[in-house]
Give the backbone structure.
Amino acid sequence: MKNLLSMEYLTNDDVMAILERAREFENGAEPKLNRSYYVANLFFEPSTRTKTSFEMAERKVGCTVIPFEAGFSSILKGETLYDTVKTLEMIGLDAVVIRAKEEEYYNELLEGINLSIINAGDGTGQHPSQSLLDLYTIYKEFGRFEGLTVTIVGDIAHSRVAKSNAIALRRLGVNVKFLCPPEWAGDFEAQHSWNGLLEESDVIMLLRIQHERHDVHFSKENYHQQYGLTIEREKQMKDHAIIMHPAPVNRDVEIASELVECKRSRIFHQIRNGVFIRMAILETILKGR
């Protein structure tokens, strides 16, 4: 396993091995890398959680993190992503973590590049490390996947989180449902009202409204009333059901502000879990080189 590009390329065994290793890290296990590795984080879209989480994970497994500022890179001078990554390889890097606006940007790097590539988000395509931390959060909560119902709510068509999780959860035996406005369903079959979903779901997974990917203005208040997780809707959830959100959260749009840190919420737990998952990803990838 030299690269992590898409959940499509991971088997269930691959997923479970990463989840188990993340649990070992959470319980205090030491990393098993045989040397120091050099890693850079190439983020061409804004990020707080993913970028910082990867940087923390890299340091915790013993990597040397080489600073890279996208806003000052030669890509602004017209250099291709391939040439940038090849340059970093020649300098001596072992791996790069990349977030880019283009879907499947990594395809141009698969021939001729010998360092490892970890996809931290490609446009509206995939976000495998987020999916893995979501899976870890669910697994910690329920101890299984088979037979659970997860409802993903929001901007489905533009969400790499929804796409990654749909692939992984279904393969693991989860009943995945979608709720969104009709124009945001994309290629997914989705419901357009909450009817029955709250009573059936073990997990309500809310998605950020991606304002930067929309041309048309919409009413935040109307969205919250129709599709948001309101206080009234939270009361209809199963007793054991949990709330998730990849963040950043638009409070009082996708979710009532009072629910962000309620007893059911695992939103900030997901962020913490992301460090352990990314430690497991890095160790797996770098040991596989």
Summary: The mean pLDDT is 95. Strands lie at 38-43, 64-66, 95-100, 116-122, 149-153, 175-179, 203-206, 242-244. The first strand starts at residue 38 and ends at 43. The chain has nine helices and eight strands.
